[in-house]
Write a structure and sequence with these properties.
The two termini are 29 Å apart. The chain has helices spanning 17-27, 63-74, 87-91, 95-101, 126-133, 152-177, 187-194, 196-201, 240-250, 263-277, 282-289, 309-314, 350-356, 361-369; strands spanning 8-12, 31-36, 54-57, 78-81, 106-111, 182-186, 222-226, 232-236, 296-298, 317-320, 323-326. The strands form three sheets. It has a six-stranded parallel sheet with strand order 3-2-1-4-5-6, with helices on both faces. Strands 7-8-9 form a three-stranded antiparallel sheet, covered by helices on one side. The protein folds into two domains: 8-194 and 318-370, Rossmann fold; 222-307, formyl-coa transferase, domain 3, CATH 3.30.1540. By secondary structure, the protein is α/β, with parallel strands linked by helices. The chain is elongated and about 80 Å long. It comes from marine metagenome. This is Carnitine dehydratase. InterPro entries: CoA-transferase_III, CoA-Trfase_fam_III, CoA-Trfase_III_dom3_sf, CoA-Trfase_III_dom_1_sf. GO terms for molecular function: catalytic activity.
């Protein structure tokens, strides 16, 4: 049983960062009940982000549906939603209505821009939020345009994971105070938080021109290189002793490559290392550098990563219902996190969940007949 065993959390179904938050919490043992839309004849999705949850299908446009969610709230520790500001208030499921039923409830809100501000009601996606935070500008080749780093920074790192963190913080506080509160999680705020180190570096030599700094591909010793077989490897030999080992194992001139931090020479050193790495295949470079203090790794695809010996040993990936996916993380010595089941079909658990909060079978049958639940 994971460390959040015993906590009941209601998830108003959404996309992207919300489901990721739900996955993080349910992987850690929380009982997460996902409130889905009614979708007749729809099977369980092959969606890793929806694993480990029970699904209750409810029509939130009907007053009876709203009442069902409020009944769920009465016995819950937290609820989270990912709609635009004001949507749950208009539904009758805003913080005031929910916390009137349960004053200890933690109410999590996931948006791109936040609950207030000039952009609060505007549509957006990860790329927009990281654009406003300073993150996107810093990523890309020198002289080139900013490059979207998948939707990892805004949606997941600065969104869903930050919401999960915020919810757990508020749940800890509620245990002391006996009172809940609203957790306003904005992806633009979260992306800015992830940039904290670079804001501290901004006044200490960090160049505003992307692709010219130590950690953004500007240096030759923190970079990726193509190999003879068209694959890639990455090195991160920042510390002097690791850099010396890179120079040694790459077989380049130690004297000429000696001035590691001379930015004026980085471009030339990169060009030479590009030629060197193309002389051998990725597998050959792994035999030479992997497991040493060069700070080296092969660049693996999502199809290759699960089969790497280190990941296999660690159990970093697991297969559930035919879908290979990341295992729960982090790991705990005593309260083991685990995947209990894959994603459920919308409404698959409606009867079980609603019965547990006091609905009789004849009530459930009537609600189903009226199209309130699925």
């Amino acid at each position: 049983m994971g460390p959040l065993n015993g906590f009941r959390i209601i998830e108003l179904a959404g996309i992207g960062p919300g489901p990721f938050c739900g996955m993080m919490l349910s992987d850690m043992g929380a009982e997460v009940i996902r409130v889905d839309r009614i979708a007749k004849g729809v099977g369980a999705p092959k969606d890793v982000l929806q694993r480990n949850r029970q699904s209750v299908a409810v029509d939130l446009k009907k007053p009876e549906g709203i009442e069902i969610v409020l009944k769920l709230v009465e016995s819950a520790d937290a609820l989270f939603e990912g709609f635009r500001p004001g949507v749950t208030e208009r539904l009758g499921l805003g913080p005031d209505e929910c916390m009137a039923r349960n004053e200890k409830l933690v109410y999590g809100r996931m948006t791109g821009w936040g609950q207030d501000g000039p952009l609060a009601q505007a549509a957006g996606h990860d790329i927009n939020y990281i654009g406003l935070s300073g993150a996107l500008h810093a990523i890309g080749e020198p002289g080139g345009k900013p490059v979207p780093p998948l939707n990892l920074i805004g949606d997941f790192g600065g969104g869903g994971m930050l919401l999960a963190y915020g919810l757990v913080c508020a749940l800890l506080e509620a245990q002391k105070s006996g009172k809940g509160q609203v957790v306003d999680t904005a992806m633009v705020d979260g992306a800015a938080s992830l940039m904290a180190m670079f804001f501290s570096m901004a006044g200490r030599g960090f160049d505003d021109e992307r692709g010219t700094n130590l950690l953004d591909g500007g240096s030759h010793f923190y970079n990726t290189y193509e190999t003879k077989d068209g694959q890639h490897v990455c090195v991160g030999s920042i510390e002097p002793q690791f850099y010396q080992l890179l120079v040694e194992k790459a077989g380049v001139d130690a004297n000429r490559f000696g001035p590691q931090m001379d930015r004026d020479q980085w471009s030339g050193f990169k060009d030479e290392l590009e030629d060197v790495f193309k002389t051998k295949t990725r597998g050959e470079w792994c035999e030479i550098m992997e497991g040493t203090d060069v700070c080296f790794a092969p660049v693996l695809s999502v199809f290759e990563a699960p089969t790497h010996p280190h990941n296999v040993h660690r159990g970093t990936f697991i297969e559930v219902d035919g879908v290979v996916q990341p295992s729960p993380s982090p790991r705990f010595s005593r309260t083991t996190a685990e995947i209990l089941h894959a994603a459920r079909a919308p409404g698959e658990d409606s009867t079980e969940v609603l019965s547990s909060i006091g609905f009789a079978q004849d009530e459930l049958d009537a609600l189903r007949e009226q199209g309130v639940i699925g």
